[in-house]
């Protein structure tokens, strides 16, 4: 993960000026590059080169940004479980084979059940978004969301 030097100025563990930050990066041999696709010179540094406290703060800030963004309209990837009992498989296959049966079951839900289902889907969606970022496993993403 690459972070623009201009974003790092706001961290208290680093110099507060861009020139001071560039000097520190050069002195400590941080891995840097010019930000691709941007007019002018915007220098980025690899997050692994930063002090651990700054790395953690950058990851938290990025994860919070992801959580505040509007959710994508694309469906979350389907995660399948290992094996199911035959009775459960038969019920699932029945729903897949008959969309009308599925609609009847969905229409039978109360408003409270719908709200609970929507909330659960939103939480899972956020966990999956955070877990896709470098440095976050699913377990870390869950802990991060629960703690914040």
From TrEMBL:
Any single Pfam family the record assigns to this protein: HTH_Tnp_Mu_1
Domain HTH Mu-type: start-end pairs: 1-66
InterPro entries: DNA-bd_dom_put_sf, Mu-type_HTH, WH-like_DNA-bd_sf
Gene Ontology terms for molecular function: DNA binding
PROSITE patterns: HTH_MU
The name this protein goes by in its record: Transposase
Organism whose genome encodes this protein: Escherichia coli
């Amino acid at each position: 993960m690459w972070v623009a030097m201009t974003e790092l100025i706001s961290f208290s563990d680093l110099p507060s000026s861009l020139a001071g930050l560039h000097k520190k990066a050069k002195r400590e041999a941080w891995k840097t590059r010019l930000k691709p696709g941007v007019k002018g010179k915007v220098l980025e540094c690899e997050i692994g080169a930063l002090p651990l406290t700054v790395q953690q703060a950058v990851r938290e800030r990025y994860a919070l940004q992801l959580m505040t963004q509007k959710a994508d309209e694309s469906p979350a990837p389907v995660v399948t479980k290992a094996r199911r009992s035959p009775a459960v498989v038969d019920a699932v296959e029945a729903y897949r084979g008959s969309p009308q049966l599925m609609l009847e079951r969905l229409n039978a839900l109360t408003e409270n059940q719908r709200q609970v289902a929507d909330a659960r889907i939103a939480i899972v969606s956020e966990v999956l978004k955070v877990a896709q970022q470098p440095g976050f496993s699913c377990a870390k993403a869950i802990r991060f969301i629960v703690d914040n």
